[in-house]
Design goal:
alpha/beta
Length: 235
């Protein structure tokens, strides 16, 4: 298995929830973390749980962040070994009542941000002929859900992006995989009903982090679409 010790890892959405849990798990295995997020105060709090680590204090969907991914204390031409795209926002509104601004925000943060993150790290990974990308999608990308139409569409786009990238970059030694968490016990899903889930409970962020670590470390894991949903995708 691939070791995370000493690997430079960039995590978008790394200040809370699934992104922070992944960062903490990777740090325990010796990775050197850079976190990306919108709120500098929240990022600073997250850094207090990690060592060594640093942060890029800008939105993951911005062009500014795309360049910061490369320039923030990252010696050229090396760059990052691992990118985890975990930034995301949720939706709780019918399509008919979702404003154009909300549609744009969901697409920008969930999908465009993931695309920009991949664009930022791929040139150096390609030159180095190694690298790992773990994208975080959602069970709703394949299952859909009332009040989550735009969210589901944005997360489905991440699956399409991942599958396409695997064909583009595998020959350069770069592996790309995607996680599909179900209802995880975070601020985004705390009101969901666990009785819907065959295992009878919400997932834990640490369980998603374990799966992300597996995808990052297994040298033959490429083009994996991995459900972490307690069996909900089967009902």
């Amino acid at each position: 298995m691939y070791s995370l010790a000493g690997k430079r890892c960039l995590v978008t959405g790394g200040s809370r929830g699934i992104g922070l849990a992944i960062a903490q798990h990777f740090a325990r295995e010796g990775a050197i973390l850079t976190l990306v997020g919108r709120n500098t105060d929240t990022l600073t709090d997250a850094l207090g749980t990690l060592s060594p680590a640093q942060h890029v204090g800008s939105a993951a969907d911005s062009q500014e962040a795309k360049h910061s991914f490369l320039d923030f204390d990252t010696p050229a031409p090396y760059g990052y070994d691992i990118l985890v795209n975990a930034a995301g926002v949720s939706q709780n509104s019918l399509l008919s009542s979702t404003s154009a601004d909300d549609v744009q925000a969901l697409l920008d943060i969930n999908l465009r941000g993931t695309i920009l993150g991949c664009q930022a790290v791929l040139p150096r990974m390609t030159r180095r002929k190694s690298g790992v990308i773990v994208n975080v999608s959602s069970l709703l990308a394949t299952k859909g859900g009332k009040g989550a139409s735009v969210y589901a569409a944005s997360k489905a786009g991440i699956i399409g992006l991942t599958r396409s990238l695997t064909a583009e970059v595998g020959r350069f030694g770069i592996r790309v995989n995607v996680l599909l968490p179900g209802y995880i016990n975070t601020e985004m899903t705390k009101d969901q009903i666990s009785s819907q889930i065959p295992l009878g409970r919400l997932g834990r962020v640490e369980e998603v982090a374990d799966a992300a670590a597996f995808l990052a470390k297994n040298p033959y894991a490429h083009n994996c679409v991995l459900n972490i949903d307690g069996g909900l995708s089967g009902v």
